[in-house]
Amino acid sequence: MKGLVKQRYSMEERKEFRKLILDKLKKAKKDLLIFKESFYNDKNNGTDDTYPTFKAFEEGSETLSKEQNAKIVEHLQMFIRSLNAALIRVGNKDYGICRITKKLIPKERLMAVPHTTFSIEGKRLVEKNK
Predict the structure, then answer these.
(1) Pair 85, 23 in one domain
(2) Is position 4 within any domain?
(3) Of 3, 29, 92, 116, which is least packed with CB atoms within 10 Å of its CB?
(4) Which domain holds residue 102?
(5) In this predicted model, what pLDDT tens digit does every residue of 5-14 receive, in sequence order?
(6) Do the Cβ atoms of 35 and 76 come closer than 8 Å?
(7) What angle do CA 86, 90, 95 make, to 5 degrees?
C-alpha cells in the first residue's frame, strides 16, 4: 500500500463536496436574484426638484452602479455555471482531478474553491504558458 497514490475521492468525500457545492450554489443563486432585481430597478429617487448638478451626479452614480451590478451579475452567472459543472464532475466521479497534471487536487483547495479544475501546480503551469 505504501507509495500508492490516491486516484479519486471516495463516495463519502464526494458527498461532502456535493453538499458544499450545493450550499454555494444556493447562495450564489440568491445573490444573483438580488443583483438582478437591483440591476433592473429603475425607480426614481425623488430628485426632480433638486439642483440639476446634483441630479447629473446622481444619474452618473446610478450608471456606475448599474455597470458594477452588471459585472457582478455576469460574474455570478459564470460562478453558477462553474458550480453546476463541478456537480456534474462529482456525479461522474472525476471531480477533483487537475485538468493539467491529472493528479488529485488537494482536499483543502477544493474546500476553498470547490469549482476549480486545477491544482495549484496546474494553475501555475497554465499561467506560465499564457
Answers:
(1) yes
(2) no
(3) 3
(4) 96-130
(5) 678 999 999 9
(6) yes
(7) 75
